[in-house]
Amino acid sequence: MKPIHACSMTLLSAICLTPAIDLALPVAGSSHPLAKTTMKPENSERVTLTGVVIRKEWSQSAESWMAGGSEYYVLDVGDAEIEERTATEGTILRGSDEVEWESFEDFVGMEVVVEGEFVAPQPYVPSSPMENYPTGMDGKPLPRGGGFKVSSIAPVGD
């Protein structure tokens, strides 16, 4: 029996010991929540949305990857049609100079009105060849950072 080269063993370990990641890709005409996500020019317009703020924990999903790989906040807009769906329930909320990301915690479970702009996901550039990240069918890393950059948030009725 031939010994396994150290380099081969490292690669084998990386493949076998790496946790599975949901590699679902947005596909035109699919029911996947990211299927409606489109790239948008940086000079986007101010938009007002209404929905319920929910906090979601990290998971091995395309949605969590888009959010940045840790817990995140989503505006649940129900069945309302919105320009950019980056989450199953609606859109991932992003902090801004006007509204800090941490302040979304104060609104969890509340119906709110948010004002801001949709931001397009950005291509992900791995920092190391040994890094784990979800990839598309083309083998490239899935983008991340898309969602809704909030410039103001208030409970409905205020």
Q: Could you please describe the fold and organization of this structure?
A:
Keywords: Signal. Residues 1-24 form the signal peptide. This protein has 158 residues and is of the alpha+beta class. It has one domain. Helices cover 11% and strands 24% of the residues. The protein contains two helices and five strands. The chain has helices spanning 6-17, 62-67, and strands at 47-56, 72-76, 90-94, 111-119, 147-155. A five-stranded mixed beta barrel has the order 1-2-3-5-4. The longest helix is centred in the first third of the chain and has 12 residues, at 6-17. It is elongated. The model is unreliable at 1-41 (pLDDT under 50).
Distance between the termini: 74 Å
Task: Tell the overall outline.
Answer: elongated
Q: How would you sum up the major sheet?
A: 5 strands, mixed, barrel
**Which value, in Å, is the CA radius of gyration?**
18 Å
> Class by helix and strand content?
alpha+beta
Mean pLDDT: 77
- Give the low-confidence spans: 1-41
Helix content class: 10-25%
Tally of DSSP helical segments = 2
Number of domain modules: 1
Strand order of the largest sheet: 1-2-3-5-4
Approximately how much beta-strand content do the residues carry?
A: 15-25%
Q: How are helices and strands ordered from N to C?
A: HEHEEEE
Number of strands: 5
